[in-house]
Each structure stands twice: as C-alpha cells, then as structure tokens.
Design goal:
Blueprint lengths: L16 H10 L48 H15 L2 H13 L5 H14 L2 H8 L5 H32 L1 H11 L12 H13 L4 H9 L11 E6 L20 H6 L2 E5 L11 H30 L2 H11 L10 H17 L2 H13 L5 H14 L1 H9 L6 H22 L8 H14 L2 H24 L1 H27 L16 H4 L2 H10 L9 H9 L3 H6 L3
Antiparallel strand pairs: 1-2
Helix pairs in contact: 2-4, 2-19, 3-4, 3-16, 3-17, 4-6, 4-17, 5-6, 5-14, 5-19, 6-14, 6-15, 6-17, 6-18, 7-17, 11-14, 13-15, 14-15, 16-17, 19-20
GO molecular function, one term: sodium:phosphate symporter activity
Family: Belongs to the SLC34A transporter family.
Subcellular location: Apical cell membrane
C-alpha cells in the first residue's frame, strides 16, 4: 500500500478535506493516475450504479398515465385530451366507451372524465370536416358542405364554452348524473348490438388482431413485455406416440375435461392475419395501420362524394330534397325539427357511429339535397344517438363498477341534451346556423382557411394547450388567460361596430387603423398562393367567372351601389 501512493506513506486514518486536496495536488504530476481513497470511503464523483426497475418502456403501465395524475385534474387538459384521442380513433363512440371502461376500472375519477367526454364530442366533428374537404372543387358545393360540417363543430364548442366553467365551479353534470342514478335501478348485463362489427370483423381479423389479455394487464398494472399483436389464436391437443393411456376416459385426447389439460400436451395454433409473424415493433405496426387507415378513409370519402353526385341528380334529387326538407302543416311546423332530431338519434343508434352518419349528411348538403336548417337537428340527433353506445358499454360492466360507468355515460348524454336546450329550443339562440353560414362563405372564398381550421382546431391548438397543461395550471392560465380575454374583446367590439357603433369610441368604430394583415385575409391569401402554386389553395374558378358577369350592363344596373 505505501508503494501505491506517489506522495509517500499515508497513515491509516480517515482523510480530511485538506489531506484530499494536498494529495490531489501531489498526484497532479503523475500520468493518468487518480486519487486513491481508503477502504470504506466512496468517491462522490463516481457514477452511481443504475438499478433495474424490472419494467421496460414497452411494458409501461398504461393506467399510470391517468391514475392519480395531476395533469388531468386540469379541465382544459382533459378537454384537449378527449379531442386528440377522438381525432386519432375517428369515432366518438369508441372514445366514450374507452372513458367509461377506464372509470369503471378506477383508472379515472368521474370528475376527471367529464372534460374528456366534452373533448370527445368536439373531436368527432373532424370527420364531417374531412368529408367536406372532398367537395372543395366547386365553390357553391364547398360552401354548403363546409358550412354543414362547421355547424356541428360550432355547436360542440359553444356547449363546451358554457358547460366547462359550470362544471369546474359547480360540478353540474356530475351532480345531475348522480341524481339520475339515485332514482334508477340498474341491472348489469346489457350489450351493445354489434351491427357494423359483424360486417367489418372478418376483414379486420385478416389485417391485425390484438391480444386482449396484454391490454387488460397493461391497464390494470400486471405489466408484461409481450407484444400487443396477437400471435397465437388457439390450442390443439398434440397426440403423443405410446401415450394412449392418457386418453379414453375423457372422451379422447381432444375431449373436454381436466384430464386432457393435465396429461396431453397442447400445440399453440398461430394466428392468420397480416402481422402474425412480423418482426416489427408495436409502434411501427401502429404507424403503418394509422397511415393505411387514413388513406382508406380519404379514398372512401372521395368515393362517397362522387357516388352521391352521380346518383342524386334530376328527379331523384328533387324527390329526396322534398322528403327530407318537408315540414308539418301549420301550426305544427315546429315539430319537424324535433322529428329530425329523433331520426338522427335513431339512425346513429342503428349504425353505432355518429361519424358514419355525419359522413353521409355532409355530401347531401353539398349537392343541395338537405338544407342547413334541416341538417342541423339531424346532427344534433346524432350526438344523442352516439351516447347509447357508451351507455350499453357501461351496462355490460360488472356489478361493482356498474354505477360509475353508467354515470359517465349519462354525463355524455346530458352534455348533448343541455346543448340542444341551449342552442336549438329557442329559435333566436340557434347561433351555430348563422355562424356556420358565415364560415362557409369565408372558406368558399379562401379555401386554405378550411385547412388552417382543420390543423389549428383539431391538432395544433389542442397540442399547445395540452403542453401548457403539463407545465402546470398557473402557466396555462398565464398564457391562455390573456389570449381568451383578447379574443372576447375583439368579438365584442366587432359586434358593436356592426350594430351599435355609437357606443364605441371614435377610434374603435372601425379596424381601419390596424395594418392590413391584421384586419384582412387578402395578404395571407397572396402569401398562400405564392407558397402553393397549384390550384388547391387558390380560389375556385367560379370566382373569376362571377367577376366577368358584372361587366354586363344589366347586371351592373341591378346591383345597389
């Protein structure tokens, strides 16, 4: 030991701070030598030994992302999470059923699930917006189609703006659903009718199959490193030579009974789907399926529009338009809208998908078969009909989790019902209709506004809000609060400029004092046209055709200066 130290012999005592410094200075002249510590001492700069937690990222508990999570205690975070999930799965019925199952499994509280349910309702309107984008070739058709898709989203957003603050302050929906449960006697065992699943299940089983046991285990905490992709779809008793004594009593080697399981070896039967023997990771398979599903979705939307445009022409279109837009005779004409709500709810219940129903309504509006005033109650009815899927999924829960699951399903139902009471019952409060018409006119003139609305409303802004929620509620309030106040002031001043300009100061009676790029979309339109030289983002040809019509003296004389 004395020979191992360059600074001479060191007495066997604990090294103090000064001794360590002197020894380090003495060792500085040696080539590559490090200070040597006495036995029992540890180097504070040494790298710690990493401990294996026994749980890989692949086998991370999915429930930990929601259970006891501070982020979801923020209502805005829950809202944008519901929007993003519904945008990804393209089905509000699936998203709401997932939330119901998580509440029934105690992964989410009822209070934390209410904003998520609101976000689910908002996110489902992206399907109708995508359908309307397939009709952007003609200006008038695109105006009607996009207005019809926008009325669905505007209704959902207006309902969220009213009910989300009320829910945060007084837990309105939670208490109303609890009160309903208190007066109802429920029995478990209901099951949703698998109408569409019977048709689609054979095809989807040929593409991919998921292991339900792995999904349940990752959600409940029994994590494994197994793949979500199902590889084995059954077992078969494997006969062994000279081992016939194990058969017979149980009805043969293939017969039922505990003797077969304990004595005869079983052979696993591989699944027969596209990714059964793949070497790709679950993440890679998920991205491949997502890209393929979006491609198929866009192709189907285009085909739906082309089919309706070719079929609904002439007398057929006139007959369908007469039936769908017909009203009851006076004085019962007001019942026509409520009948449309019931029809929309019934058809959505049969289809078990509001996305399918809205995807069929929007092209009919584009070709001029259904008016916006009639499509509005039909879309409201589809919001009511899609809640039945979550309700039936909750009724299928075990008896110990039945009440919590049904309560979440009732919250979804009451959210849409209160929205109908707010924005449909009183005719003067049907604000989504004029707002959608204005939005349709805007997007018909600037088609890139529809793409901006799609990206901002359903992807970028929800992601930004969710990112701020991760930083904390204070950061979200500090950034989002001033923006919300600014938007409210701009809307209020704009309304007063049109209706009561005398109430405003002279400076605020118009926005002419602002730069052009802050008060008009023309500079942005020129910028987009330069960045997008193709015909996709430029105004439709009908605009130029209409401009030439005003060169006619008769047309000019009929216009008011």
């Amino acid at each position: 030991m004395p020979n191992s130290l360059t600074g001479g012999q060191v007495p066997p005592r604990a090294l103090d701070t000064v001794g360590l410094v002197d020894q380090g200075l003495g060792n500085a002249g040696t080539a590559g030598s490090a200070p040597t510590l006495e036995e029992g001492d540890t180097d504070p700069w040494a790298l710690p030994q990493l401990k294996d937690t026994g749980q890989s990222w692949k086998g991370k508990v999915a429930g930990d992302a929601f259970k006891d999570n501070v982020v979801l205690s923020n209502p805005v975070a829950g809202l944008v999470l519901g929007v993003l999930v519904t945008v990804l799965v393209q089905s509000s019925s699936t998203s709401s059923s997932i939330v119901v199952s998580m509440v029934a499994s105690k992964l989410l509280t009822v209070r934390a699930s209410v904003p998520i349910i609101m976000g689910v309702n908002v996110g489902t309107s992206i399907t109708s917006t995508l359908v309307s984008m397939a009709q952007s070739g003609d200006r008038d058709v695109f105006r009607r189609a996009f207005g019809g898709s926008a009325v669905h989203g505007i209704f959902n957003w207006l309902t969220v703006l009213v009910l989300l603050p009320l829910e945060s302050a007084a837990a309105l929906l939670e208490r109303l659903s609890a009160l309903t449960l208190g007066v109802a006697s429920l029995q478990p065992g209901g099951h949703a009718p698998d109408i569409l699943k019977v048709l689609t299940r054979p095809l989807t089983d040929l593409i991919v199959q998921l292991d339900a046991d792995v999904i349940v285990g990752s959600a409940t905490g029994n994590t494994t490193n197994s793949s979500l992709i199902k590889r084995w779809c059954g077992t078969r008793a494997q006969p062994t030579a000279g081992n016939s004594s194990h058969c017979g009593a149980a009805g043969g080697c293939g017969g039922p009974g505990p003797e077969r399981n304990s004595s005869a070896p079983e052979e696993l039967l591989p699944c027969r789907h596209l990714f059964a023997g793949t070497v790709l990771t679950d993440l890679a398979v998920g991205f491949i399926l997502l890209a393929a599903s979006l491609l198929v979705l866009c192709a189907c939307l285009v085909l739906i529009v082309k089919l309706l445009n070719s079929v609904l022409r002439g007398r057929i279109a006139q007959a369908v338009r007469t039936v769908l837009n017909a009203d009851f005779p006076f004085p019962f004409s007001w019942l026509s809208g409520y009948l449309a709500i019931l029809v929309g709810a019934g058809l959505t219940f049969v289809l078990q998908s509001s996305s399918v129903f809205t995807a069929a309504i929007v092209p009919l509006m584009g070709v001029g078969v259904i008016s916006l005033d009639r499509a509005y109650p039909l879309l409201l009815g589809s919001n009511i009909g899609t809640t039945t899927t979550a309700l039936l999924a909750a009724l299928a829960s075990p008896a110990d989790t039945l009440l919590s699951g049904v309560q979440v399903a009732l919250i979804h139902f009451f959210f849409n019902l209160i929205g109908i009471l707010l924005w449909y019952v009183v005719p003067i409060l049907r604000l989504p209709i004029p707002l959608a018409k204005h939005f349709g006119d805007l997007t018909a003139r600037y088609r890139w506004v529809a793409i901006a609305y799609l990206l901002l409303g359903f992807l970028l802004l929800p992601l930004a809000a969710f990112g701020l929620s991760l930083a904390g509620g204070i950061v979200l309030a500090a950034v989002g609060g001033p923006l919300v106040v600014l938007i409210v002031l701009i809307v209020l001043v704009t309304v007063l400029q049109r209706h009561q300009p005398a109430w405003l100061p002279r400076r605020l009676r118009s926005w002419a004092w602002l730069p052009l790029w802050l008060r008009s979309l023309e500079p942005w339109d020129r910028l987009v046209s330069r960045c997008c030289p193709c015909q996709v983002c430029s105004p439709p040809q009908a605009v130029a055709k209409e401009a030439h019509c005003y060169e006619n003296p008769e047309v000019l004389a009929s216009q008011q200066l």
